[in-house]
Backbone:
């Protein structure tokens, strides 16, 4: 149990790309803080990605501050990135405590109280960096509970070997669905459904297109709406490893089914489709339930962040409580965004600490 008398300048929740970047910059600026991470080991969500996702499959992992990230290779991302994070934590002596799963954060006067079981940390500011991986999203369809086959979400993808010889229905229009189909279609029977027709991208995904996508998400967050995934608005591309599946017709998508039945799905026109497995590649939501006591959500259902003119990924400060920064949220929910937001959050924390310190403390700090 942490002493009730000791007050930290900041607590970072989460030690993925966003939390590590924030901690690095807080440490550099001399901010007394801890990083609380729910996982047993370093690696953030990357340690939980499926085994066949290699460093050639991922869009690319951006550098953490001051330390280059591993590049493309056939090695599994769930080994390479956690090793990079582990090295980073020890190389920069980041104050990470784990495993600590934060249950709730409450306000107590000027302070925030971060609770995990019977432990608590009292702090002047908070940097939330809890990502999305722990909140897989499965949309509700009539009959979903009656399905007798297997259902998996991306977060629990069991790998192609497990699905071999089965008829697999892949649901979702994002990059994960494209990758699953690329891997599965050559070894088993697949069928792809999406709500909207997929947006295929022929061109190279350049800086401008990236900025346009991030700006779209930033605008949603500014309006207090739940953020869409940055990766979901960048469009889809087929890579070399997906060509075989493309030749097999795996990317001829169908619109969503109307209902799920015990042995398959029913289309809107009444026809029946037998399937053995439903693979929900339907994304994630921001893992921010532990912040609920702070009442940060706006009427739109999302947490609005103060916009930063000219730098959409630097928007990290919660409009309804400026003591709270959100990194890896909305426009910064990518590895590059998370790294940038970590820096912005640390600057915002320092500014807030300075503005709330007594004149004597400010003079000492300055
Ligand atoms: P995470 O890596 O999820 O880290 C969050 C940390 O918070 C975890 O360690 C977790 O244990 C901890 N945590 C969560 N809740 C609590 C709690 N209550 N208390 C304490 N700790 C908690 N982006 C790219 O830029 N390039 C890519 O190639 C790419 N590929 C992707 C592939 C997949 C399949 C997915 C789903 C996403 C991908 N993204 C990619 C998006 C990218 O992974 C994320 O935006 C980024 O890595 C998230 O970093 P993060 O630090 O915000 O979250």
Residues:
């Amino acid at each position: 149990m942490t002493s009730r008398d000791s007050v930290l300048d900041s607590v970072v929740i989460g030690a993925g790309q966003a939390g590590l970047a924030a901690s690095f910059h807080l440490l550099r600026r001399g901010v007394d803080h801890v990083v609380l991470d729910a996982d047993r080991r370093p690696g953030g969500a990357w340690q939980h990605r499926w085994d066949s996702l290699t460093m050639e499959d991922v869009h690319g992992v951006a550098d953490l501050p001051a330390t280059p990230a591993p590049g493309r290779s056939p090695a599994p991302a769930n080994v390479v990135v956690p090793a990079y994070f582990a090295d980073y934590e020890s190389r920069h002596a980041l104050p990470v405590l784990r495993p600590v799963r934060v249950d709730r954060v409450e306000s107590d006067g000027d302070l925030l109280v971060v609770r995990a079981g019977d432990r608590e940390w009292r702090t002047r500011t908070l940097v939330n960096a809890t990502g999305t991986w722990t909140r897989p999203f499965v949309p509700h369809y009539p009959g979903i509970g009656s399905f007798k086959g297997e259902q998996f979400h991306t977060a629990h993808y069991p790998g192609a070997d497990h699905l071999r010889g089965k008829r697999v229905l892949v649901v979702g229009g994002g990059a994960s669905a494209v990758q699953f189909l690329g891997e599965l279609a050559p070894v088993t029977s697949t069928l792809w459904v999406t709500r909207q027709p997929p947006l295929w991208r022929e061109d190279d995904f350049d800086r401008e297109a990236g900025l346009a996508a991030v700006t779209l998400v930033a605008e949603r967050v500014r309006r207090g709406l739940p953020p869409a995934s940055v990766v979901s608005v960048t469009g889809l591309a087929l890579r070399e490893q997906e060509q075989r599946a493309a030749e097999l017709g795996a990317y001829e998508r169908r619109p969503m089914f109307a209902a799920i039945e015990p042995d398959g799905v029913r289309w809107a026109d009444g026809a029946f489709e037998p399937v053995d497995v439903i693979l929900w590649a339907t994304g994630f939501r921001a893992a921010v339930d532990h912040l609920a006591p702070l009442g940060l959500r706006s009427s739109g259902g999302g947490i609005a962040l103060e916009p930063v003119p000219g730098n959409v990924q630097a928007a990290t400060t919660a409009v309804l409580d400026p003591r709270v920064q959100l990194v890896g949220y909305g426009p910064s929910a990518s590895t590059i965004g998370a790294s940038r937001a970590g820096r912005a959050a640390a600057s915002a924390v320092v500014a807030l600490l300075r503005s709330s310190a007594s004149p004597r403390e400010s003079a000492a700090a300055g």
Observations:
- The chain has a mean pLDDT of 91.
